[in-house]
Amino acid sequence: MNELLTSDAPKPQVSGGPARPPLVLASASPRRLALLQQVGIEPDALLPADIDETPRKSESPRDLARRLAREKLEAAQAAARRRDDLRDAYLVSADTVVAVGRRVLPKAELIDEAADCLRLLSGRAHRVYTAVCILSPKDRRRERMVETRVRFKRLSNREIEGYLSSGEWRGKAGGYAIQGLAAAFAVKLVGSHSAVVGLPLYETMSLLEGEGFPVRDAWGAAT
C-alpha cells in the first residue's frame, strides 16, 4: 500500500461556523473508512502505511496489534507533517489481530490460508484484538485496546467451500469478515462488533473527543 490516497473535499462546517480541524485516517481499509463515515466523520486524507506486519518472536496477539497500530500512526504522522494542509491534523490508526490462544491467524491472501483459518475457528471461540491510536495536533498520543470474544458454529465442508468461493475472506484477518457472509457463522460475540470489523467506534470517538476533536459537529447536517 504505497499509494497515497487523499480527499480533496472541503472540510465540513457546522451552521456556517468555522471548518473543523482536519483528520487523517492512517489506513486504506474501506471498512475503517465506512465505520468513521457511519458516525459522521469524513477523513480529509487517507495515509496508509506500508509496514512489516510479521509478528515478532514470542509477541502476544495483544502486543502485536498495539505495536502495529503505533507504527501505522508514526508513519502517517511523518507523512502528514510534511504537508501544510495536514500539519495540524488529528490522526487515527488501528490494527486488528485474530487469535486462537497465542496463535495469530494471518490476513488471508491465499485460499488455502483462509481454509485453514476457517477449519481452525469452526466450532470454537477465538479472540479479536483491535488497537486504536490517535494523535492530536499537539502530538499527544492516546490509545485503547479492545478485546472481543467470538464463537463460531461448527462449520460443514459445504459452508467452508461456499464461503471460500465468495472471495470475501481475501485480505481479512482470520480469513473472514464479520460484517459480511460470515455473520451467519457467529454464534456469540462478546465485546465490540465494530472492533471486529476493524475500528472500535465507541473508543475512537471517546479518544478524539477527549483531545478536543468535534466528533458530533456533522450530526445536525445528517438529519
From TrEMBL:
Residues 1-23 are annotated as: Disordered. It catalyses: dTTP + H2O = dTMP + diphosphate + H(+); UTP + H2O = UMP + diphosphate + H(+). The record marks R31, T96, Q179 as: Important for substrate specificity. The active site is at D95. InterPro entries: ITPase-like_fam, Maf-like. One of its GO terms (cellular component) is cytoplasm. CDD domains: Maf. GO terms for molecular function: nucleoside triphosphate diphosphatase activity. Belongs to the Maf family. YhdE subfamily. This is dTTP/UTP pyrophosphatase.
